[in-house]
Prior knowledge:
By secondary structure, the chain is mainly beta. The chain has helices spanning 2-26, 164-171, and strands at 31-38, 47-57, 60-70, 73-84, 89-101, 109-120, 123-134, 144-151, 179-188, 192-199, 207-212, 215-222, 228-233, 239-246, 255-263, 266-274, 278-286.
Amino acid sequence: MRSLSIRKACACLAILFCLSSTLLVAQDLGGIWKGVLTQGPGGCYAEYFLELQINFSSGQVSGRTYDYYDTSRYVKMNFSGRYNPQTRRLVLVENRVLQANIPIDCIPCVKTYELTYSKDGKGEWLRGDWKGHISDRSSACPPGKITLKKAASSDFPTDIEQSDTLVALQRQLHLQPRTKEVVKILTVDTSQIRISLYDNAEIDNDSITVLINGKLVLYRQMLTDKPLTYRLSAFPGIEYELVMYADNLGSIPPNTALMVVEAGAKKMEVFLSSSESQSAAVKFIYKPREPVRTP
């Protein structure tokens, strides 16, 4: 009887492990989702294409939406949201219109999405409904349905997160052209990458400006023994290039930094050196892990 109980206990543990693995995969919502969005009578078009660029970390959901008739006629918005892993329900709320290239007789709808995650032999899916109101008005838009599949690449550029202050600074930023040296190419298996920069040796008043894919993320920051930190939410199929631009050379040229990269279980160090003629660069590539398959 005892051996039978042990076998039963082992079987239960195996089932729980499989269920936990399935749930873990289901919770990995970060990435590109593409498909269609329908709209009831009264909308500009009965059907649109839709792309969600979802950043998903520690239960927090944010990102960008593109609803479009084709890639030249689209509305781009940002959103925030929440996910319930028990019910697999995802609620996204668009916050504001970032860009609109649509016919003059069309008006953007600010939408709320109620979606359910599922997975089958053909891929990962988000399906559900949406409702919303006309931008800058309280009038309701004709609601509709959504079907999205997780995709390997985007039809649109993916954004680098910037504060409003950095966006304003970049508009008037004029950095002198310099050559770039790619010091390292790092491949990671998680979308969430923490980048920390320290002075590499003696603290000598080195100051740096940092750009990722041409977007300003740090501006004229002093390197010390305390980290300058940026959190990168990466998408698969996108190459991210970080460039360290030396604002000065400090008292001990050249301008040097220790970069510590934390991505999931990985922790990597890269030494960077920039001068008045050359900037150091590091490239990041996110390749998702293959899901665990159970018999």
